[in-house]
Q: What sequence folds into this?
């Protein structure tokens, strides 16, 4: 039986499927009987579930962040769907397809990687070209790079989101370079492609997305610089000026001190990178906020922190 | 004899040409004889000039902002060129080619207008299309629009600069719309083309660029809205929703309250317009600051206020 | 039987009256029986109410924002009044006196309008006088103007609040003009009277107060300017300077960019308008926060966001 | 011969009068002869003056901030008046009428003091009334209070300026209290009258205005509080609550931390005081900037720091 | 039986002890029987408690902030300890040891006072020495000073916290003065010791910590200045310069206007005091946030407002 | 003849010595004869100098930033010393003692290095100890480290200033660690000693102090991290956690984003380092501003940007 995804469940439907446990609470009825209040998730969303008469050994048989198989029925309660659970059994992590449970890009990852490699091939500066090759011929890097999310929230917060975002900015940068001939195309494109690689170290994305210790201690800008430094050290004669200018693109791409850049953009390419990155992230986030806002009674989304206002949906 | 431009003068050269008087001071030598200290300009730059033994009637024969014909010799004084003037005669404004004296775009204005009209033709929404036609079939508007500068300083501060900037953003917006299909292309392009039209009323650009009274009292965002309002009133059935959304693009395109927008961008198109406009203006300004910085002994420009830092020239 | 208002209900009292439904939740007892949890309101306040044993058809017989007639008893539960409801029946909107349900000014609206008209009569500038007449002889405008609230919260957030606020500032401005002879009295008074007219379009105030689409897209400053522009177009020879200066008063009256003004006050009258408006709104809001704070055990109100502190009540 | 004031001098006029020396420089002609370059002032303004052939003993016979009598002729040089001095002789401070040299209010000081005392008499609270009497029956205080400027620049920066400003705000506060009956009139008026008394200690205004050491170390808000504390200690039974509330008005009247108030206004009276004070100071400063801007070729003043913009003069 | 402290309770344990009532709610079971939901506290922490079948007279026999003796059993419910209460009896305030219920320093108060007095003895300036003696020989002051908390939250928020903080900064200041000979040691130490004395008036700390009316109206900086002023008035010949400089240290020690200082530090000693005070408070607060964060599954604390980030615990 | 330093010159004195040319201008007398206007410097200060009758070949015989030997006389002109130059001859850089011309620490560099090495020896953590050894046993590093200034202005802006600042903070940190036992002493001291090493790459200090390209592109925080990374890579088993925590100290020591830190301090040691560094730099800068302010007629320095106010000198 193919997995039924949470986003497609309907009231009355019988469920017999595996879910990720996002939250688990043991509560007590007025009659002092324990019951389980769960939040279950898969990659398409999450849902409340309730198991009455939950014996202690059942309650203790699994924990938050584990996978469980349940049998139950979907009910509507106070305008919201929830599952009344009849049976629960733990499921080992090895037996699940992780990609069913963590949100991931809807695009074709290998097609995106191919397109990005095509763009990389157009770079003619020998040192920048070698530097990019050093990354994109390393299998372990490619795997992580094509799997990582771009953020823990706001924009491209799903597996493959980093690649999707980088490719999107890279396409814009190609068009942009054609229209602005004074821009150093090779430098800008290298900056675009590498500007967020520190995120592969900054973000942890097993089951849920959060920051690593390194991420919180030094931030992805500095991690990215260190990753580039390591590769560049191994390229004979990599000009130190070029390396510093590339570091500058990475370090300044947040644009302002208060957004975590230790330097402000000081070259046309750094200025362009900051704005192209911002343009893609902001338009993506706005579109997402509008699409995901389900209340059809209003022409406006709720307040969106990133934009410091509500967005117009019409 | 063809006009000799200031940027091409060399020490020792004899000058017999017309210039705009930017500054005029009557000074006195220790021996109590009056002399004239002038700053002369044409579209390529400005230069100090001095006329010794300046009789009062000569001093009073012209004023600041007038045109004069001079005969004199170019000298080098303390590393700077200046003109030692022998003769001065006033020149009527009708006798000069204004474009010789006010900086203007180096691009072909009618080619730019054609390209912009081509872009306008691709707009399929009937109301937006009619609105743009209402502007771009009005000869007086077209003349002002294709002559105005985009700013008094910083970016595109020369005749035709507004058109150059609008076309540049419009090209970017065309590429951008192709890459981001969720964007309402017609609305974005209309916003791009009209977002700065208030500047045709805000800026005065006879000889030197400054703000009009209207510009300083209400600002070009509101002037733009009023200009659109007037045209839209005459288009039968122009949907009020569409008009408000277009107003929103105009009013919010500075992006933040502190930059003079009374509302923050609240639609994907408004967000995109703000960033595309910013991207073009910032990259243009950075390139200009680098190109115009002549001190070859440093890899860095002077401090540039817009970027809150010095820019790297290599 | 005259309506009993919520603010006057006492424990033990029998209620048989019409209320506005602010919130409606269908909940379930442990025994799986549905019950209704309501929040009922009239112009004097709101109250929780509970209907046990609520059959589905009853639950579906009305919705949020509707009017219902209830029979029930007022009880005290955990120090708070609530109504135990026995019977519910929907009431058509046509059958209710809307003013019983939406908070409105306690002052006499027609007396306030008269006083304002008296002030308008003292304006001697022929154009400003005609402009004000154009508004205040239009019945539909007067109706909306005298009904609108001044805000959705904080100050004068009730029907007639806009008129009350405008009159209050106008009185202050009359006194102020007498004390400061260098002020252009006619201009200041016109600015005071018209500065918030955009709110008649920005705010929707059927049953509850919220912002219209236009309000959120362009803001009331720009709506006000457009309304004045329309009227002024029809007045022969209205001087464009005067119009721009009046626009400036409207646009700058919030005083700072971050409060939504696209220009900062740049004339003595604009500066005075900003401060007079602020003075009235702030003193009103502080008095209201103090009056409405019911906890007598403290000399201080809760934290009031507008003042970024708690207020002293003694 | 009555004193000729600087503001009335005309080119060609013979001068024989006493002036205050604002600046004194000994320079040298190309022929190595010393000459004196002076800036002379009286209460109506200041002017450059030059004395050729200035023997060293003459140069040393007076210093900056001294008074000198000169004989000379007024000349126009490069569009500006200056004095060609022929004779100089020092004048003892005792021999001058100080009020001829320091700018002072054009209003009648004793009439202003009378009006203020009339307002004080209307205060009915016995403690506040006694407190004000303690100040206004003390001759030395009254003298300083009626002589002090309100600031070193910006607003009311002249002898008697403090009194003029206080009276102006007090009149506004009287009107305001009549219109807003919820305001504690006695408290507000006492706050208005005493809010700036610390300036009598903060500012030094012998010849030129500057801050005292105390002013720069603690500020006039704290000085004012200490002055009130001293007086209140001597009033039997002055309620400590009332004293704290009055301190609060003094300390919070700048309105914001960044303007030097250690607390933000937290009572309706404190809020009103802040806004009334601000209203008077801002309208005064704007009017002054417009009146004093002499360049008739522009409708705008220069940039005015206090308003962060240029002001419109029409 | 010695008091059992909340921090040491374990599930299953029988409790028969006195606690402070932090919160008290009367709720109702589905069967309409009232029960009590309490939050009980002593100096080591707080805990939920529940009393079923709570007769109205029992519910009314005590109030929030009172002391009660309970008998009951500790249970674990949903991973949290709570007390199931069987019996409740009110306890008069006179019968409790207040220090059992309000958190207080773990250090030896009289040892700290001794050490501080030793430091005071090293001050050689006769006026500063007399001033400190005036405070520290006054029994009532010493009692309050050694009992007061340093803040209501964040740092040293417990009885004796003020003394602990002052001593800690004083020790640092002694070391610092030894290393920086240009610092006026006596002045700095006096500033350190007196900089927070206004807190003895600003904070109320009976049972729970909150701000007094005086504290909220004028703040502890001004209270401190007034306290010093009173003492200094009684010391013959106290130099007014020295007093102003000392006031300056007190008033400026928050360092910035937005942190409530009406003046910014303007002497080396004021600058040092601000930084030493800050250093002690920040390091203390960080250590406390780390120590008190009990969730061992993360290397990071929760977000800490004071540091605008999470802290690393390893 | 021993060098006469600028700070010791007196009017009338004959000078025959070598100076650094800070500024060089060729001007013209009224009689069209060129003369030289120079600014000459040594490590103790700078002075104007003038050479009349300067033949073109003399003017061209040296340039700005060169060394010249002059013969001349010190004169007083308009209260300021200047040199009337009679003879000029260029001096090769090899022939001068650079330390005579660039300001440098007055302390004993090798004594400071010894003391710092003593402190390093007290570090017991084997990895941090090895890391510090890797730096301080490298001769080239030690030479640069002990020569570099700490800044281009404000604090410790002279040769050896970096070492002096580091030692000063290190001493403070030793005292501090003794008083705060919860601090990880080894980590804090290592952070203190290495926090500014990036400045050895960021600052260029041949003759005058300015930022290098690397300094302006990436900043000294990132340079420091890269320098540590290089050394740590060569230490077997250096724990990556420890390295990240140390990076965190370096990166966060400016304390706030707007001061260029890409992360805010998130450990007690990082918080302490930020405040200790700040304390030393601020107290040093204040003392210097007071010492160097020579105008004895005022108790206050001029406005000091770092402190946003004037400082009190008494």
A:
């Amino acid at each position: 039986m193919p997995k039924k995804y949470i986003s497609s469940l309907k009231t009355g439907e019988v469920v017999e499927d595996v879910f990720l446990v996002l939250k688990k609470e043991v509560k007590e009825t007025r009659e002092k009987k324990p019951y389980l209040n769960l939040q279950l998730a898969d990659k398409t969303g999450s849902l409340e579930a309730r198991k009455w008469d939950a014996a202690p050994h059942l309650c203790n048989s699994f924990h938050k962040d584990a996978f469980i198989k349940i049998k139950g029925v979907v009910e509507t309660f106070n305008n919201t769907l929830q599952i009344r659970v009849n049976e629960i059994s733990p499921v080992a992590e090895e037996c699940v397809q992780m990609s069913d449970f963590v949100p991931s890009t809807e695009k074709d990852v290998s097609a995106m990687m191919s397109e990005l490699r095509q763009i990389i091939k157009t770079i003619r500066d020998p040192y920048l070209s070698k530097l990019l090759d050093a990354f994109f011929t390393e299998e372990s890097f490619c795997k992580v790079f094509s799997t990582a999310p771009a953020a823990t929230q706001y924009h491209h917060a799903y597996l493959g989101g980093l690649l999707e975002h980088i490719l999107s900015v890279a396409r814009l940068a190609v068009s942009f370079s054609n229209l602005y001939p004074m821009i150093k195309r090779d430098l800008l494109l290298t900056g675009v492609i590498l500007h967020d690689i520190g995120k592969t170290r900054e973000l942890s994305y097993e089951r849920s997305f959060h920051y690593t210790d390194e991420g919180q201690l030094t931030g992805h800008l500095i991690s990215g610089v260190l990753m580039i430094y390591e590769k560049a050290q191994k390229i004979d004669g990599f000009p130190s000026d070029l390396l510093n200018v590339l570091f500058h693109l990475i370090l300044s791409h947040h644009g302002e001190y208060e957004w975590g850049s230790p330097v402000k953009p000081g070259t046309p390419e750094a200025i362009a990178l900051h704005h192209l990155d911002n343009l893609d992230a902001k338009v993506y986030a706005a579109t997402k906020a509008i699409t995901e806002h389900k209340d059809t009674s209003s022409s406006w989304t709720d307040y969106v922190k990133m934009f410091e206002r509500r967005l117009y949906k019409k």
